[in-house]
Amino acid sequence: MARRRDQSEVSTTVKYLLFFFNVIFWLLGGACLAIGIYARFENASYSDFFGNAWSDPAFFFIIVGGIMFILGFTGCIGALRENICLLKFFSIALGVIFCLQILLGILVFVYRDKFDEIVKEKLQDTIVSYRDNPDLRSLIDKVQTDFECCGVNDFNDWDDNIYFNCSQKTTEACGVPSSCCIKDRENKQCGYGVREKNEKKIVEVEDKIYVRGCVEGFAEWVETNIIMIGAIALGIAVVQIMGISCSQSLIGDIKSQKSRWDS
Fold it and tell me: At 204, phi and psi to the nearest 5?
């Protein structure tokens, strides 16, 4: 005679912990997917900046969000229905993703100089076409404002832009965008002529605009927030390990339950 369901050896705590974990995972995957789609198809600045889909973070968000969405859904159904096949798929996929994250971190560390070179090249191209694309203009302005920087290596990089080049006979010549300004940023002309060097116009550049490049600014931000970044990375790793452990524990309980029923 088969045992009653209330005598099941499946841990209710593990089952519903895994279920709620996957609900959150599923929702985060959907949000990540939506952000990626919006950035890729609605906001042209990212597509123009990175040039192709494979180097576009929006494409990365779409792939990661899609995988998280599918895994979250699979984990939810597998936990609720106590389906070993779905739980194994979830556990293995999560383990593969965990290993790939470690591999990606190693590759970024090993090839960080190449990565820095690509970012510098893309930022320099953005500076050149600053006035030609409103989306790119908003992107570089936000980067310079958030990281308190100006240009790629330093503020003189803006000489590569035809509008801010010192050879031009315009009000913007030898200037920088207002997003480089330390104060009075709302005044769009606050950076005009700050790079001009002559006896008639003496400007204390460091008191008016940021002189460091955005590469240095970003590096300083990472260094300042390294503990927070490490804590987030560790938190993600712990959550993934917990998901794998819970799914394996539930699979073991289900198998044990089935073996008792069969006997």
Answer: -80, 95
